[in-house]
Amino acid sequence: MRSIDIGKSGVAVSAVIMGGWQAGLKDWAGITDSMSERAVKASLDAGITAFDTAESYGDGHSERVLGRALRGVRSRAAILGKVFANHLHEDAVIAACERSLKNLGTDYIDLYQIHWPSGSFGMKPVPPEETMAAFCRLKKEGKIRAAGLCNASVEAGEKYARHGGIDAVQSPYSLFFRQAEKSLIPWAAGRGVAFLAYSPLAQGFLTGKFKVGHEFEPGDHRTRNRLFSPDVFPRVIDCVERIRAVCRPLETSPAAAALAWVLSEKGVAAIAGARNGEQARMNAEASKIALSEKDRAALSEAALPVASIFMEETLMWYPPERKGRSNP
């Protein structure tokens, strides 16, 4: 599998990165630790060598699961961790990183990311220079190798980059959600910064698994996803069928095509979750699909009835009136 350079840090990650939100268990249903550990091992076997997690995914549970799964094979993997928005003061960043290192059972994190920028969720703002001072200190001590920023605007990226450097940015990007195409993706490319796309399958809505009348299990956060709202979900179903029609001559599935579409964007890696080994292997296989410009355009057009709703959105997962915490 091809790799993506994380800025000029010397860190490289596989083009497909396994996402670890599900492994945290909170906000998801029907997943066990053993399933997540098998998915990590299947990912490694399939060529996926980078794993994204966060301290907030199940209050460290995702980190602990990943640490167990990588025991004995840590040198084969790149770990992408995150510090949450309530831990952005310098001492709090250091303490959060130490907890994550302990949870992961490692002495370094390859890419450490600010999960949400200062001031998110109504929290008291912390000056970017204070947060980045902690990142610089952690780099100097060898506890992190690269610094990243998630869920941020270009303006926020500029502010953080001025105080120690940003090697990667992470934001949602998929056939259904393309706002990054006119903001963070070109900004990152111009700065030599890696762009990591999370939710490339729109949290499963692009897989074609969900039909009219679908009900998620209790505890599954996707019941609050805007794509599942009564005014949008019928369009989602229609778009997936349009995508399926584009996929037939390509002899591939909507999920594989949607992931390949994201990966066809130059310099972009895709963070795809996997709740079992089969999904991990399917994600890896999608990296082998080479879409022509014609195929990419056809997929873009097929998804446009949903994508057009979110063209100006920077966050899409919850209704506009919900301003509380979101974990991706």
How would you sum up this structure, described in words?
The protein has helices at residues 33-46, 61-69, 90-104, 128-140, 154-161, 184-191, 233-247, 254-263, 277-286, 293-302, 304-307, and strands spanning 3-5, 12-14, 16-19, 50-52, 78-83, 111-114, 147-150, 168-172, 194-198, 268-273. With 328 residues, it is of the alpha/beta class. It has a single domain, classed as TIM Barrel (Alpha-Beta Barrel). Strand 7, helix 5 and strand 8 (168-172) form a beta-alpha-beta unit. The longest helix is centred in the first third of the chain and has 15 residues, at 90-104.
Features:
328 residues, alpha/beta, TIM Barrel, two-stranded antiparallel sheet, 11 helices, globular
Q: What topology emerges from the helices and strands here?
A:
Layout: E1 3-5, E2 12-14, E3 16-19, H1 33-46, E4 50-52, H2 61-69, E5 78-83, H3 90-104, E6 111-114, H4 128-140, E7 147-150, H5 154-161, E8 168-172, H6 184-191, E9 194-198, H7 233-247, H8 254-263, E10 268-273, H9 277-286, H10 293-302, H11 304-307
Parallel strand pairs: 3-4, 3-10, 4-5, 5-6, 6-7, 7-8, 8-9, 9-10
Antiparallel strand pairs: 1-2
